[in-house]
Write a structure and sequence with these properties.
Blueprint lengths: L3 E4 L2 E5 L5 H7 L6 H12 L2 E3 L2 E11 L2 E12 L4 E8 L8 H16 L4 E7 L3 H8 L5 E11 L5 E10 H7 L6 E3 L1
Parallel strand pairs: 6-7
Antiparallel strand pairs: 1-2, 1-10, 2-4, 3-4, 4-5, 5-6, 7-9, 8-9
């Protein structure tokens, strides 16, 4: 297995059982540490189903500065479908960390794991996430899921859903730009 993926001044370091305590310590001392550490435990630690990994969480560095967390999850190995997610430290927002990390995740999804489809989404009120997703080449808006989930106010909210297919990735991205660090 690899340790990290690097391209475009962003390095994604794979979170695993061996480095999880170190990753927890990296996220101490920030204004939004409590939130990021909560998200780390909820969404970024490795998960397995029947002995096969289904959650690939990463901590990200932008030019060697801690930037946040990003992930590729597997929705269905049978259908070769996955999803992405990201949480960026508040002081690193607006620097393109999330959209510039997507090529790394697409490489993992399509080249290494052999997926065919990667999805993502955001609540309609989350304009920053919507802008970030729409900056990512290949993600196409596929629709709006009505009252998809509960937002932070405890109200049901619609969600925008986007996806990229392997064939789109092959046309839009140069896989040689991703450096795999073992």
């Amino acid at each position: 297995m690899f340790k990290a993926l690097h391209a475009d001044s962003i390095t994604l370091y794979l979170i695993d059982e061996e480095n999880l305590d170190e990753v927890r310590s990296l996220f101490q001392g920030f204004a939004d540490s409590h939130y990021l550490l909560s998200e780390l435990e909820k969404s970024y630690v490795p998960q397995y189903k029947e002995g096969v990994r289904t959650k690939y969480g990463f901590y990200s560095l932008l030019e060697n500065e801690l930037a946040g967390l990003t992930l590729l999850g597997i929705s269905s190995w049978k259908d070769r479908r996955g999803y992405t997610g990201a949480d960026t430290l508040s002081h690193m927002r607006g620097r393109g960390v999330a959209p510039r990390s997507k090529p790394h995740l697409f490489y993992l999804a399509f080249e290494i794991l052999g997926l065919n489809r990667v999805e993502t989404g955001c609540f309609v009120s989350n304009l920053a996430s919507k802008r970030s997703i729409e900056k990512t080449a290949g993600f196409q808006l596929e629709g709006v899921l009505r009252e998809y989930g509960l937002n932070e106010q405890g109200e049901f909210e619609d969600e925008y859903r986007y996806a990229i297919l392997r064939r789109d990735w092959l046309k839009l991205y140069d896989k040689s730009e991703i450096e795999v660090i073992v």
